[in-house]
Design brief:
The complex is a heterodimer of chains A (222) and B (256).
Chain A lengths: L3 H12 L2 H27 L5 H14 L2 H15 L8 H26 L3 H9 L4 H31 L11 H12 L2 H30 L6
Helix pairs in contact in A: 1-8, 1-9, 2-3, 2-5, 2-7, 3-5, 4-5, 5-7, 6-7, 7-9, 8-9
Chain B lengths: L1 H24 L5 E6 L8 E3 L2 E3 L1 H13 L2 E6 L2 H9 L5 E2 L7 H6 E3 L4 E10 L15 E5 L4 H6 L8 E5 L3 H6 L5 E5 H11 L3 E4 L5 E4 L2 E3 L2 H20 L1 H10 L7
Parallel strand pairs in B: 1-4, 1-5, 8-9, 8-10
Antiparallel strand pairs in B: 2-3, 6-13, 7-10, 7-11, 7-12
The chains are: A mainly alpha (222), B alpha/beta (256).
């Protein structure tokens, strides 16, 4: 029933697009993490003006679909600001993923920070730590541990969201599969194979996540 | 420390990719960037990572005459118009049909493919024998294609349940999830013949379709249009256009 020979022949073709998918997700994740930390710290410490801007940023990027944002930045804005044409599909996709996911991640990092008992803040301030020392030495290391599982969730989601890059002309894993399926009409085989590839990648990440959680838990083990 | 170094590498990688992007966008005048979906058999499709089809052969033949480097860019069909308008590609070779709306916006070459809109149903479905039988039925069309427009112009348009799809309309009709799809007759015939899906044509085509290459309607775009248009005329004259058509369709779809 399944054309296994076709799937076997397609496997190396699809795998050759996997590095691009992972690169886009990884780079976007790194930048999204940095941006999300900044947004979360601004929100928690209620920095004037910046706090309002963070709220607006999070509201927009969480409140509109990623595909709309990608179309807006890649096709819409260059009609107004012509120099934006220089942005390639890959860069636009990474930028879109970064902005979109940082809005979600900022909220889960904020939750992790707020979740740390207030008595620790008071204790740190009482021994003369500055606000930034308090953040770097006391709050963020603990918040990291709490936020890790949800942040990994977002990373997994992000890997799959890279499939939208094909609408910007970037042939990544999913785009390659769609084109191959159009050539062979073996939809079940092609999409089953790509599903398995995504699944295996995510499973490998989950394994890494378990290792990371064990590492971050060291201080709490008796 | 190690983390910062890794981050540095990533930052460098990104700035490099941004930089290379800047260079990629400043395309040479003698490069013709041709957009297509890569998912439309047998006009443009991929087998084992190789882009093939009628449109690829035609554009390569055009490039041989004009001396342009032909660069194929594949993207989801719904993204192609945006790419053309934002100047990321120069034309679209994806069996683009000339419509009044598109003519107002783009500079078209003369038609190089003549075709008709065709209703296709699951094999054995004899309740539908043409567009007039579609009242009360669900009909799939591709998002961004002009078949939705053609259906809406039919007298029974209000009674047709039109569903727009991003892709895979043939598959959904074969599965019985929608009752019919509308596509051009030529590729529908080809899909049924080559791919063994349980589908059949329902009656005769209901509208004539002329396909051509759209360019941006500015000075540079019209100049490219004239150059490519002249090459197409030359290919028609020499019979090469007919040969390419017969290679993919067993028939000449380049004549009215």
């Amino acid at each position: 029933m399944l054309n296994l020979e076709y799937m076997w022949g397609l496997l190396p073709v699809l795998l050759s697009y996997l590095p691009l998918t992972l690169q886009m997700a990884t780079i976007a994740m790194v930048f999204a993490l940095i941006l999300a930390c900044l947004l979360a710290v601004v929100r928690v410490s209620r920095v004037p003006v910046l706090n309002g801007l963070s709220l607006l940023f999070i509201s927009f990027f969480r409140g509109t679909p990623l595909l709309v944002q990608l179309f807006l930045f890649y096709y819409g804005l260059p009609q107004v600001i012509s120099s934006l044409i220089a942005i390639t599909g890959v860069t636009a996709a990474v930028l879109g993923l970064t902005l979109h996911f940082s809005a979600y991640m900022a909220e889960s990092i904020r939750a992790a920070i707020v979740g740390i008992d207030r008595s620790q803040t008071e204790a740190a301030l009482s021994i003369g730590m500055t606000q930034s020392q308090l953040m770097r030495r006391i709050i963020l290391p603990q918040a990291t541990r709490v936020a890790t599982p949800t942040l990994m969730n977002y990373f997994i989601d992000m890997i799959k969201a890279t499939s939208l890059a094909f609408t910007l002309g970037v042939t990544e894993l999913m785009g390659a599969t769609q084109k191959e399926a159009a050539g062979s009409f073996l939809y079940l085989e092609a999409f089953l194979l790509v599903a398995l590839i995504y699944w295996v990648i995510v499973e490998m990440l989950s394994w890494g996540q378990r290792r990371l959680e064990i590492y971050l838990n060291k201080a709490y083990q008796r | 420390m190690r983390l910062t170094r890794k981050l540095n590498i990533t930052l460098t990688a990104l700035s490099l990719s941004i930089a290379s992007g800047v260079f990629a966008a400043t395309a040479h005048a003698d490069t013709l960037r041709v957009g297509m979906s890569g998912g439309y058999f047998p006009f443009t499709f991929v087998e084992q990572d190789e882009l093939k089809g009628f449109e690829i052969d035609v554009m390569n033949a055009v490039g041989e005459i004009t001396g342009d480097d032909i660069e194929f860019v594949t993207a989801s069909f719904s993204g192609l118009a945006g790419m053309l308008e934002s100047g990321r590609i120069d034309t679209i070779a994806n069996q683009i049909t000339i419509t009044p709306e598109r003519e107002a916006k783009y500079a078209f070459t003369e038609p190089y493919v003549y075709d008709g809109a065709q209703v296709v149903v699951k094999a054995g479905n004899d309740t539908i024998e043409g567009v007039e039988d579609l009242s009360g039925k669900s009909v799939a069309v591709n998002l961004g294609s002009n078949y939705e427009q053609l259906l809406r112009e039919q007298p029974n348009a209000d009674e047709i349940d039109i569903r727009t799809y991003e892709s895979n309309i043939e598959q959904d009709v074969a599965l019985g999830r929608v009752e019919a799809f509308v596509m051009d007759r030529v590729s529908a015939t080809q899909v049924i013949k080559e791919k063994g899906l349980p589908l059949e044509l329902a009656g005769q085509p209901f509208s004539t379709i002329e396909n051509a290459l759209p360019f941006r309607d500015d000075e540079a775009g019209r100049e490219q249009r004239d150059r490519v248009g002249a090459a197409l005329a030359e290919l028609r004259e020499s019979g090469e256009l007919r040969e390419i058509s017969e290679k993919w369709f067993d028939t000449d779809i380049t004549q009215p």
